[in-house]
């Protein structure tokens, strides 16, 4: 990925100029926003299915047991059968909802993960600090990793209600430590980030971003004003 460089106290990539007011939206931002929405929709469906499957299993088990206990009472057995069938229908609908919102389950591709992360940060008007380490090619599912990086930007205050993208600019530092690639994201601006992480949508972003990191064999560490992805580099 070709990126501009600037010289000074540190070397880094500079962001492309944002579109002027009144012009079309940045296609890169539109694409990333779409990935963000799809990722959150898929995570929400997974969370809802997870929370509802346990009570549905209880209903299913109890109704089936009561059917056996009252098989001599045709009227009661019929009512219990309807409960059992309804619970099964809800479980099926939950499975269909998860399938219909599937996201980030495409094939893994070997990509330059550092360049991919830099592209996301630059699209949001940020910069990349420090020199890029060698050998940052990882086998990843690109769209899910890009969405996770956007979630991380929100979690450090970029583009949230309290600090819009104009108030907070993201900064990415890429490091290689032993056999891991570290993608550290922070935000800089006139006002310190004050991200309301108790918001339901931001909590959903935390779960979605953590899931992506874990699916790639890594982890996500969230601080008050930072988000660090640690991804393993295969030999």
How would you describe what is shown here?
The protein is of the alpha+beta class and 235 residues long. It has five helices and eight strands, in the order βααβαββαββαββ. The protein has helices spanning 27-69, 74-100, 113-123, 142-155, 200-215; strands spanning 12-13, 109-112, 127-129, 137-140, 168-177, 180-189, 219-222, 226-232. α1 (27-69) packs antiparallel against α2. Residues 1-11 and 18-23 have low confidence and may be disordered.
Architecture blueprint of SSEs:
Layout: E1 12-13, H1 27-69, H2 74-100, E2 109-112, H3 113-123, E3 127-129, E4 137-140, H4 142-155, E5 168-177, E6 180-189, H5 200-215, E7 219-222, E8 226-232
Parallel strand pairs: 3-5
Antiparallel strand pairs: 1-3, 2-4, 5-6, 6-8, 7-8
Defining traits:
235 residues; 6-stranded mixed beta sheet; two-stranded antiparallel sheet; 47% helix; disordered N terminus
Short recap of the structure:
The protein is built from five helices and eight strands.
Helix content class = 40-55%
Q: Rough shape?
A: elongated
In what order do the strands lie side by side in the largest sheet? 1-3-5-6-8-7
Structural class: alpha+beta
| DSSP E strands, number | 8
User: Taking all residues together, what is the mean pLDDT?
Assistant: 83
How far is it from the N-terminal to the C-terminal residue, by CA?
A: 22 Å
The rounded Rg comes to 23 Å
Q: Count of helices?
A: 5
């Amino acid at each position: 990925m070709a990126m501009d460089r600037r010289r000074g106290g540190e070397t880094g990539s500079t962001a492309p100029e944002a579109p002027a007011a009144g012009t079309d939206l940045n296609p890169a931002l539109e694409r990333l926003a779409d990935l963000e929405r799809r990722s959150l929709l898929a995570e929400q469906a997974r969370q809802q299915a997870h929370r509802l499957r346990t009570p549905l299993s209880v209903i299913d088990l109890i109704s089936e047991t009561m059917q056996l206990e009252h098989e001599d009472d045709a009227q009661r057995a019929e009512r219990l059968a309807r409960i059992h069938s309804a619970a099964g229908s809800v479980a099926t609908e939950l499975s269909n909802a998860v399938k219909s919102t599937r996201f980030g389950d495409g094939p893994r591709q070997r990509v330059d993960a550092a360049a991919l992360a830099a592209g996301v940060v630059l699209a949001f008007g940020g910069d990349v600090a420090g020199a890029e380490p060698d050998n940052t090619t990882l086998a990843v599912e690109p769209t899910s990793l890009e969405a996770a990086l956007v979630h991380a930007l929100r979690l450090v205050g970029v583009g949230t209600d309290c600090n819009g993208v104009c108030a907070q600019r993201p900064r990415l530092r890429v490091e290689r430590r032993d056999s891991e690639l570290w993608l550290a994201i922070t935000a800089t601006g006139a006002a310190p980030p004050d991200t309301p992480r108790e918001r339901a949508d931001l909590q959903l972003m935390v779960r979605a971003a953590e899931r992506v990191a874990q699916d790639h064999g890594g982890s996500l560490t969230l601080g008050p004003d930072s988000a660090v992805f640690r991804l393993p580099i295969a030999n």
